[in-house]
Amino acid sequence: MEFFKPILVGQTVDDIPELWQRMYQCGNFWCRVGVGVSVLSGIEAALWDLKGKLEGKPVHELLGGCQHDRLAAYATGGPANYPHDELARKIEFYQSLGFTGVKVSAGELTPERGFGVASEPAAAADFEARKLEFIRDRFGAGLRVMLDGHMGNSPGATWSVETAIAVAKAVEPFDLFFLEEPLHYTDPAGYASLCAATTTPIAGGECLTAAYEWRVFLECDAFDIGQPDASFTGGLGEFMAVSRMLAERGRKVATHAWGAGGSFMQNLHCGFAAENTVILEIAPAYGPLHGEVIGDSFVLCDGFVLPPTKPGLGIELTDDTKRRFP
């Protein structure tokens, strides 16, 4: 923040994209992509929040206007419990909160062995297909289901293109909303080959930062559904730029929003401002701090999220909250 302070002090919030561009250019050596550009996300979010509160408008109105009366949502949260009855309990919990869409992960989490995922094509394909068959048999065709490979940030071995194709084709009969991150982000060509090899929609992008990095993937049609995160990819403006690039390729947006209250609301506003958004990621049952920061700005009704209506991002961080959650 101190690095960018001279650029911001004395300025107004009349032209936030210009302020972002000045910061981005001055950080050329260390914030074109990666953690550096993510620093800009927090600063820029504060600027949009301030502008919205000064003008009495929700941020999505400042980003070009609300494009959706409501948006589908899915509950998300970590590894897939195993055996299958434990996974069913997790999905039932999501449903009890009002969700009609859920995301489960590839692999399994057991008390005895911890987390594990098969890497050989036939074994991985068989395991994930049996998981999806169980979910469909138990919960029916009406449940929106997403499967997360977690290969973009896996600490261990990641799937090969051969394994990812085997899994994607094996789960085709189960009408996945998307298969997320089945490959590492060092292989845009592999992602493109995967998209061409299966009818299962392929999603990804949560680890990509700045429109510059996204362009490398989008120009080879690496994703059917992009997952920018406004609180990580470089800011709300960069999210909107990415959404437009996806739209130009006939691709959709599914927000990534695995973060705290401020991150959560940034992505809700961007999701509603982007015309090609098809679903919102929601971390369910968040803790008391996040719940207090978000307040009543997040409204879920019949499995759909309604547009935020409060000025700015619709969040408040009060002195009282800071004292109670040091």
What does this structure look like?
- 43% of the residues lie in helices and 13% in strands.
- The chain has 13 helices and twelve strands.
- 47% of the residues are buried.
- It has helices spanning 5-8, 16-26, 35-55, 59-62, 84-96, 121-139, 161-170, 188-197, 210-218, 236-248, 261-273, 288-294, 319-324; strands at residues 71-75, 101-105, 108-110, 114-116, 144-148, 178-180, 202-204, 225-226, 252-254, 277-282, 300-301, 304-305.
Briefly say what this structure is:
Helix content is 43%, strand content 13%. The chain has 326 residues and is an alpha/beta fold.
Task: Draw up the topology in text.
Elements: H1 5-8, H2 16-26, H3 35-55, H4 59-62, E1 71-75, H5 84-96, E2 101-105, E3 108-110, E4 114-116, H6 121-139, E5 144-148, H7 161-170, E6 178-180, H8 188-197, E7 202-204, H9 210-218, E8 225-226, H10 236-248, E9 252-254, H11 261-273, E10 277-282, H12 288-294, E11 300-301, E12 304-305, H13 319-324
Parallel strand pairs: 1-10, 2-5, 5-6, 6-7, 7-8, 8-9, 9-10
Antiparallel strand pairs: 1-12, 3-4, 11-12
